[in-house]
Specification:
With 397 residues, this protein is α/β, with parallel strands linked by helices. The protein has helices at residues 38-41, 50-60, 73-84, 97-114, 135-141, 144-147, 165-171, 195-208, 229-233, 278-291, 296-317, 340-349, 372-396; strands at 17-21, 24-27, 32-35, 90-94, 122-126, 157-160, 176-181, 184-185, 191-192, 211-215, 239-242, 253-257, 322-328, 331-336, 352-353, 355-357, 361-364.
């Protein structure tokens, strides 16, 4: 085997995909797979969605890049649409979720600086969180496995071990700038955060003049059956980071903020060479065209209910392997009694792709456009995979 020229940072499956359509992928040797991984909750509208393809094709023939030295009409349009459908008044476009979160943290710190409180830089985060792979964001997440070997942890992040409002209150100090949380922890194992806890955080932030930041990189853009997960709970942040689904497979993200939170982000305080380029904006606007169509989000909720009911039946049939079905919308997880890699490999053998997560969870994150055919195939593949695992377990005991 020849030595790869690539960094050895991924444990890749031996699959080479050549084309995709809807929720299906085809390899270079013509094997077909149902994609219930969606590029880790990225391909919100599946593969080769005609509206996205047309929007990107049309833009490629016009203009790719000019930089943010100039007006980019697609940015203005997408920014206005995101603000119209959220709490936000201002948007900064990035290339990824980690960059969107970096912008969110900078915005929070700059807000306090603008008010004469430059000492307020600390961000409170929570155990099990995942906010990205930059040096600041691995510090924000606080997980040892991501921090190891990269030197001193970036300062300014306080990671709390429990979702306990009294612990949060006692941790807020004179240097606290913001609280950062995912409404549902994705990488952490599809762990839902109680709406009551989120409301308590909102109240605490209001009382303490600190900002509430939501990381909706994985939960946003229809993934939970609402445009953003927090909208179901009736709790609004001051700042929100999004990515993944908004690009439908094209790399893009955004930091959304209230006018007050973004007030101190003036020329020169932040920037991005590629962020908000015309190609990304064309795709982002096309994604919103589809997701904001009448009935689309309701259909995600209806589909989710069907899928969850089927998964609950599978859990009941294999209690030795599956102990719980977690999640909302089409951000679902199976809590397992074994490492998820085993079930993931067995599912792949049956032609279905999923994603591992922390806390021994297998993530089920299909494109938002799936229907009954895909659910039936997925459940059949999952049951076959579980049958094989169950049989092999019995044979080894």
């Amino acid at each position: 085997m020849t030595q790869s020229s690539l960094f050895a940072t991924y444990a890749r499956a031996d699959l080479k995909f050549e084309k995709g359509e809807g929720a299906w992928l085809t390899t270079n040797d013509n094997r077909r797979f149902l994609d219930f991984a969606a590029g880790i909750a990225v391909n919100s509208l599946g593969h080769a969605h005609p509206h996205l393809v047309e929007a990107l094709k049309e833009q490629t023939e016009k203009l790719w890049h000019v930089s943010n030295l100039y007006e980019i009409p697609g940015q203005q349009k997408l920014g206005e649409r995101l603000c119209a459908h959220t709490f936000a008044d201002k948007v900064f476009f990035t290339n990824s979720g980690a960059e969107a979160l970096e912008c969110a943290v900078k915005t929070a710190r700059r807000y306090h600086y603008g008010k004469g409180h430059g000492e307020k830089t600390n961000i409170i985060t929570f155990d099990g969180a995942f906010h990205g792979r930059t040096l600041a964001m691995i510090a924000a997440g606080g997980q040892a496995k991501y921090l190891e070997g990269f030197g001193e942890k970036a300062p300014g992040f306080l990671n709390l071990p429990a979702l306990d409002i009294e612990l949060v209150k006692s941790s807020v100090g004179e240097n606290t700038a913001a609280i950062l949380i995912e409404p549902i922890q994705g990488e952490g194992g599809i762990r839902e955060i109680s709406p009551v806890f989120l409301k308590e955080l909102r109240k605490l932030c209001d009382e303490s003049d600190i900002l509430l930041i939501f990381d909706e990189v994985q939960t946003g853009v229809g993934r939970t059956g609402y445009l953003f997960a927090h909208q179901e709970y009736g709790v609004e942040p001051d700042i929100m980071a999004i990515a993944k689904g908004i690009g439908g497979g094209f790399p893009m993200g955004a930091c959304l903020a209230s006018a007050e939170a973004a007030e101190a982000m003036v020329p020169g305080t932040h920037g991005s060479t590629y962020g908000g380029n015309p190609l990304a904006m064309a795709v982002g606007n096309a994604v919103l065209d589809v997701i904001l169509e009448d009935g689309f989000l309701q259909n995600v909720r209806d589909t989710s209910l069907k899928l969850k009911q089927r998964l609950a039946a599978v859990r009941d049939a294999y209690p030795d392997i599956i102990t719980e079905v977690r999640g909302r919308g089409l951000l679902l997880g199976l809590k397992l009694t074994m490492p998820p890699a085993e079930l993931l490999a067995a599912c792949r053998e049956e032609g279905m792709l999923a994603v591992p997560a922390g806390d021994n969870v297998l993530r089920i994150v299909p494109p938002l456009i799936i229907g009954q055919e895909e659910i039936d195939f997925a459940m059949n593949a999952l049951e076959k995979a579980l049958d094989k695992l169950s049989a092999s377990r019995k044979n080894t005991h």
